[in-house]
Structures are given as C-alpha cells and as structure tokens.
Write a structure and sequence with these properties.
- The complex is a heterodimer of chains A (296) and B (105).
- Chain A contains 11 helices and 9 strands.
- Chain A has a 7-stranded mixed sheet with strand order 1-9-8-2-5-3-4, sandwiched between helices.
- The longest helix of chain A has 28 residues, at 66-93.
- In chain A, helix 1 (3-25) crosses helix 4 (66-93) and helix 1 (3-25) packs parallel to helix 8.
- Chain A has one domain.
- Chain A is globular and about 50 Å long.
- Chain A has helices spanning 3-25, 28-45, 47-59, 66-93, 99-102, 109-116, 132-142, 155-165, 182-188, 220-228, 261-282, and strands spanning 103-106, 122-126, 145-149, 170-174, 192-196, 205-210, 213-218, 232-241, 244-250.
- Chain A is an alpha/beta fold and 296 residues long.
- Chain B has 105 residues and is mainly alpha-helical.
- Chain B has a single domain (26-99), classed as Orthogonal Bundle (Non-ribosomal Peptide Synthetase Peptidyl Carrier Protein, Chain A).
- Chain B is 42% helix and 0% strand.
- Chain B has helices spanning 26-38, 56-59, 65-77, 83-88, 92-99.
- The termini of chain B are far apart.
- Classes of the chains: A alpha/beta (296), B mainly alpha (105).
- The interface between A and B is large, with 41 and 30 residues.
Chain lengths: 296, 105
C-alpha cells in the first residue's frame, strides 16, 4: 500500500474513532445536527459523488430539472450521514426490551410468522435506503441475524466498523467469504441471512432493469433462494424522524425454477429490484444515490 | 411482490434410496460431475485430477459461486437435496455418495 493511501486510511479511521467516542458522550440531538451539517459538507466537498448522485437522479427520472436533482442529492447525502451517526447512537440505545420504541414494523401475518419460525432459515433482501443498519439490528432482536456485507477497502476502518455494526444477535459475514458452504450452513441453522440487492455487481451477476435502465446486479440472493427454497422476503428501513424508523417488509417472493439458471436468477432478481424501485420512488431522498448503479 | 411465479416443487423429483438398474454408477456420476465442473469458470484446477477427497473450496468455489454449481447438479441429476444434505457435501466424494442412490441415468 502506498503511504498517501495508508495515511488517508488512518485519518479516516481516526475520524471514525472520534465519532464513535463522541456518540457516547454528546447528546443525540447535537449529533444529529452535526450529521446534517456533515452531509452538507460532504455534498459540497465530494464533487465526484455529488456529480454521480445528481446524474443518477436525473437518469432515474425523479428530478425534472438540475435544481431539483441538486436538492434531492443534497438530502440524500444528509440521509447517509444521519444513517452513520444514528447507527452509532442506536447501537447503545436499542435493547430487546425497548427496540419497538424506535422501530415500527410494517409486515403481513405471513411475514410475521416466517420471522417467528426459529426452526427455518429466512433470506432477507434489502437496499441502501433509510437506515439499513438499524433495520438489521432491529431484526436481530427478533432472531439471530447474519448480515452479508462487502468489506470496506480501508482495513483500519473495516476492523473498527465491524465491532460497531455487529451485535449480540447480529453477525457480519463478508460477501467474499471463501467457505463455499458458509451461507448454506447459516440457513440450515435457522438463521436470518440479510443481503443487499441494489449495488452494481462485477461478478456473479445478472442484468435487470432499474428505473428502466439496465443495471448489473448480484444474483446471489436469487441463487440462494432458488437452491435452498428457503423463504425470501424484502425489508427496507425508512427514517421517519430522529432515531425513529419504519421497517417495510414485502414478500415472500415466489420463484419458479425452469432449469435455465440465468433466466431464473434474472427473473427473481428483477422482482427484488422492482421492490427496491417501488420504495425508492416513495422515498427518493433516503436512497444512497452517490453509487454508480448503472455502471456498464 | 410482483412475481407471478409459482413455488418450486421439492417433492417432484426422484428421491428414492433404492438402487435399481437405471441408477448411475459412481463412475458415471463422477464423469457427469466433471462435465459440469468444466463449465464452471471459477474452477482453478485440472478437472481430470479431481479426487473424491477434493474439497469444494480447493476447486475454487466460494460461498456464492457454489450456488451456481449446485443448481446445475440438481438439474442434471433431477434431485433436490435437503438443507442438511447440502451442508454435508464438503468434498466431491460426499456429493457422489449422495447422488449415487438417487440419480438415474
């Protein structure tokens, strides 16, 4: 690793550590105000991400003009910073006894039943919307949950955030895990396995339509369901106010196996992507638009 | 959710444990598995050199790429392993042992 990169990584980790300490002593109201300011600052300093966010909003057809796209993108940056800061606060506040004061669940009886069945695994597809970290933590209050994540490129930050994001019933597993049977074993043990379905994927992917534009998307969620037949649902956490969230569930998804693996994976991934698009249309400022979703 | 798809049948496949005249031998299964493995782009070893003791991680599979391969195994042999069976298949020989009484030629 080159020294400028190492220096940058250490500075990032130092800032994160400072934030972590601050989250324990600074009143949440002040932290939230700080997060909104940090979102504004990031939006104005991080030009590349700002450009991507504005272009994405325009391409999705959610902003009729540049000014509206600018406004929505700014709010998207703020949401992301709020997500980071509130996650740090919530991890100290949320307990099995009080979590429902912070998180309201919108679910069908069928999904309630699936989440309550500890003898059967469950696959949860989610997206970078609202506060996905809080959604995972809340779900882990119901049953042990494994959150499949893509490791950060900064190893110092990765080590630091791992401890922050994990919890008593919440484990993080890398999507790059080398053990071929890791996910199958987790589902066989009856655990909840949560995966993201809204990022550009470089491999193990299928092309689906997202806002009427082709988007390469991981097919891992679909393949896991097609192979195991374990029920698959979608869940998205919307921020409704300071430290308040609603988790919206959808599904379970019913998938067909035709014998054509790529077609089956594409159909199912498209169904999940349609769910993501539906909720993003409802809450456009809560989506992480600074990601190159439509990368060729 | 917006899919008009039906649940996949788990029972509508051959799951008998009886070894009849139509059942494949272990050599036939191993040969068919080698054909399937040749189609997997992540395989990092010479497929002809694979032994029953070879573990799937040694072949280059990871937690996601193995799903593609197992899907093709189900299609090829018309079997649907239970979850408990899937997690026991750590080695190629485990898979052959599982398939042998179930797979029909």
């Amino acid at each position: 690793m080159t020294w400028p990169r190492e220096l940058r990584y250490r500075l990032e980790a130092g800032a994160a550590r400072t934030l972590l300490v601050g989250a324990g002593i600074i009143p949440p109201r002040c932290l939230i105000a700080f997060a909104r300011w940090a979102g504004w600052l990031a939006f104005h300093l991080w030009r590349e991400r700002r450009r991507i966010a504005i272009e994405n909003l325009r391409a999705a057809g959610l902003a009729p003009d540049e000014a509206t796209a600018h406004e929505l993108a700014l709010e998207s940056f703020r949401t992301f910073c709020l997500m980071v800061v509130e996650t740090l606060v919530v991890r100290q506040k949320l307990t099995p006894e009080n979590w429902q004061q912070f998180v309201t669940l919108h679910w069908s009886e069928e999904i309630r039943g699936l989440l309550g069945r500890r003898d059967q695994g469950l696959i949860i597809a989610s997206a970078h919307l609202g506060n996905w970290e809080v959604a995972a933590r809340a779900a882990s209050m119901i049953r042990p949950l494994v959150y499949v994540h893509r490791p950060l490129s900064n190893p110092h930050l990765q080590r630091l955030t791992y401890g922050t994001r994990a919890g008593a019933n919440l484990r993080l597993v890398s999507s790059l895990d080398r053990d071929p049977f890791r996910f199958l074993e987790m589902l066989a043990r009856g655990e909840l396995v949560a995966l993201m379905v809204d990022q550009h994927a470089g491999d193990q992917r299928v092309q689906v339509q997202f806002f009427n534009r082709p988007a390469w998307t991981t097919k891992s969620v679909a393949m896991l369901h097609l192979l195991t037949r374990v029920p698959l649902i979608a869940a998205f956490a919307i921020r409704t106010g300071p430290l308040r969230y609603e988790v919206h569930f959808a599904g379970p998804v019913q998938a067909r196996r035709t014998g054509n693996r790529d077609q089956d994976a594409r159909d199912l991934t498209q169904a999940l992507t349609d769910e993501v698009e539906r909720i993003v249309r409802q809450y456009p400022t809560q989506y992480m638009w600074g990601h190159r979703r439509w990368k060729p | 959710m917006g899919s008009s798809l039906e649940p996949p049948p788990r029972a509508a496949v051959a799951t008998t444990n009886l070894i009849g005249p139509d059942h494949m031998t272990k050599d036939e299964i191993a040969s068919a598995l080698r054909d399937l493995l040749r189609q997997q782009k992540q395989i990092k070893v010479d497929v002809n050199a694979i032994q029953p003791e070879t573990r799937f991680d040694q072949l280059g599979f990871d937690s996601l790429s193995i799903l593609d391969f197992l899907y093709e195994v189900e299609n090829r042999f018309a079997v649907v392993p239970e979850m408990a069976d899937l997690v026991r298949m750590q080695k190629v020989g485990d898979l052959i042992d599982y398939l042998q009484p179930r797979a029909q030629s």
